[in-house]
Write a structure and sequence with these properties.
Helix content: over 70%
Structural class: mainly alpha
Largest sheet: none
Radius of gyration: 18 Å
Number of strands: 0
Distance between the termini: 54 Å
Strand content: under 5%
Order of helices and strands: HHHH
């Protein structure tokens, strides 16, 4: 492959990646099943981390800490 073909391929890969991330953002049910790295790519913590954060928030609220 020459440089131009490589560039076109990279552009196509990036467009496909952006489309898939948009699909995950728009479909929370699909996002629940996604791998942790998908959550990170979208800017969200993985489900395991979300659970830990939720538990920590719950404990903090019971201790009188502000949100």
């Amino acid at each position: 492959m020459n440089a131009e073909q490589n560039y076109r391929l990279l552009c196509e890969i990036e467009a496909n990646r952006a489309m898939m991330l948009q699909v995950y953002r728009q479909n929370p049910q699909l996002l629940i099943l996604a791998e942790p790295r998908i959550h990170l790519m979208i800017g969200l913590p993985p489900p395991e981390a979300q659970k830990v954060f939720a538990e920590a928030d719950s404990k903090a609220s019971r201790c009188g800490f502000p949100d």
